[in-house]
């Protein structure tokens, strides 16, 4: 998919990534769960500003952002929005399509539904490592492809993000309705929440920060900061 696909508001990209295919290392799967992160809200590691560790997040859209969570799991994100904005979509779960036996060998589990039902599980199943950070998602080595015909009309539901404590109220988690391959089912009360309104609220909060997010990024070069799009757990 072209960079223009990713050079849009991160919530739009996240919704449209449901049903797309991720491929690497002889394996592939359909995205059935993902989460949006933006530098205007504190759950996003780009919230601290531009640092050596968050540089990929602020770089060109359509790149892989891979980071280590809790020192254990490599997590895969798709960088979104125009260059200079820190935004990405965390891929949380896949429905395995190709290379299932290889996934089983890498994961050490047999049940298909458990192979890629978490952000750390799917990177292990596909053999995705920190060395893939910054890679072009169109040319690889990790490749994202458009929705196959069977997934073009997939129903997408919303929920709150999981595994975080900051901005946890935002319904920025996107799931394929009825999928048995997600990390956990959507909670019904927020399944039809308005993500656009939630994003507006987050931006309003960001505007109240001293100096605004753009000035914070400009001054962050001298500060240390956490890498990655989120603190999500596998």
Q: Order of helices and strands, N to C?
A: HHEEEEEHHEEEHH
Quaternary structure annotation: single chain
What's the β-strand tally?
A: 8
Please tell me the CATH architecture by its name.
Roll
CATH class category = Alpha Beta
Round the Cα radius of gyration to an integer and report it: 16 Å
Provide the residue-averaged pLDDT.
Answer: 85
Q: Which class do the helix and strand fractions yield?
A: alpha+beta
What number of domains?
1
Strand content is 15-25%
> CATH homologous superfamily name?
Methylpurine-DNA glycosylase (MPG)
Shape: globular
Q: For the terminal residues, how far apart are their CA atoms?
A: 26 Å
What is the percent of helical residues? 10-25%
By CATH, the topology is 3-methyladenine DNA Glycosylase, Chain A
Instruction: Extract low-pLDDT stretches.
Output: 208-228, 230-234
| Separate helix tally | 6
Secondary-structure topology with pairs:
Elements: H1 3-6, H2 10-17, E1 21-24, E2 27-38, E3 64-69, E4 73-79, E5 87-98, H3 100-107, H4 119-126, E6 143-145, E7 156-159, E8 173-176, H5 195-207, H6 212-218
Antiparallel strand pairs: 1-2, 1-6, 2-5, 2-8, 3-4, 4-5, 7-8
Helix pairs in contact: 3-4
């Amino acid at each position: 998919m072209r960079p223009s696909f990713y050079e849009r508001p991160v919530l739009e990209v996240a919704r449209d990534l449901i049903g797309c295919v991720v491929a690497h290392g002889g394996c592939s799967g359909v995205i059935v769960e993902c989460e949006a992160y933006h530098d205007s809200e504190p759950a996003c590691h780009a919230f601290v500003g531009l640092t050596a560790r968050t540089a990929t997040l602020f770089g060109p859209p359509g790149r892989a952002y891979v980071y280590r969570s809790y020192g254990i799991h490599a997590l895969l994100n798709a960088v979104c929005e125009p260059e200079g904005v820190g935004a990405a979509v965390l891929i949380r779960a896949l429905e395995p399509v190709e290379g299932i036996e290889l996934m089983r060998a890498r994961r050490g589990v047999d049940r298909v539904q458990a192979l890629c039902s978490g952000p750390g599980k799917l990177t292990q199943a596909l053999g995705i490592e920190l060395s893939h950070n910054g890679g072009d998602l169109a040319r690889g080595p990790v490749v994202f492809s458009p929705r196959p015909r069977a997934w073009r009309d997939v129903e997408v539901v919303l929920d709150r993000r999981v595994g975080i404590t900051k901005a946890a109220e935002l319904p920025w988690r996107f799931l394929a309705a009825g999928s048995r391959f997600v990390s956990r089912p959507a909670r019904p009360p927020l399944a039809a929440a308005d993500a656009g309104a939630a994003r507006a609220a987050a931006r309003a909060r960001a505007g109240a920060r001293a100096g605004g997010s753009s000035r914070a990024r400009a001054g962050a070069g001298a500060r240390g900061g956490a890498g990655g799009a989120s603190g999500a757990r596998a």
